[in-house]
Design a protein that fits this description.
The protein is α+β, with helices and mostly antiparallel strands. It has 2 domains: 1-37; 39-93, SH3 type barrels (Roll), CATH 2.30.30. It has 2 helices and 5 strands; from the N terminus they run H-E-E-E-E-E-H. The chain has a 5-stranded antiparallel beta sheet, with no helix packed on it. The longest helix is centred in the N-terminal third of the chain and has 34 residues, at 4-37. It starts with a helix and ends with a helix. The relative contact order is 0.13.
């Protein structure tokens, strides 16, 4: 009996670890499921490949989404979405100012 007591403690510890890890995984799966179900047009998203864009359409029948990446529309499976930032699609648009370009062709013409 004394020899089986340490083995019993190890078994109880393993079962407890398995239980807590299983609970954590189920919680993460439920959060991901809720995230994907609550996506709507206008949300900013990041795909598993690192592509950033704004949701243009969410098709629940085919389980796909259409992402607007600076005017290019791409269709992905809903499972390809890694991160969703809700409701910031319209307010995030920024305009980048073009840099000043120096015309060097005129400078080269005067050397000849």
């Amino acid at each position: 009996m004394a020899q089986s007591l340490p083995m019993l403690f190890m078994l109880v510890a393993l079962v407890a670890m398995w239980f807590f890890m299983s609970r954590s995984q189920k919680k993460q799966q439920q959060e991901r499921k809720n995230l994907l179900e609550n996506m709507k047009a206008g949300d900013r998203v990041v795909t598993i490949g690192g592509l950033h864009g704004v949701l243009s359409e969410v098709n629940t029948d085919k389980s796909t989404v259409v992402i607007d990446c600076e005017g290019i529309f791409l269709e992905f499976d809903r499972a390809a979405i890694r991160t969703v930032i809700p409701g910031t699609g319209a307010s995030v648009a920024t305009e980048i100012e073009p840099a000043d370009v120096v015309d060097e062709t005129k400078a080269d013409d005067t050397k000849e």
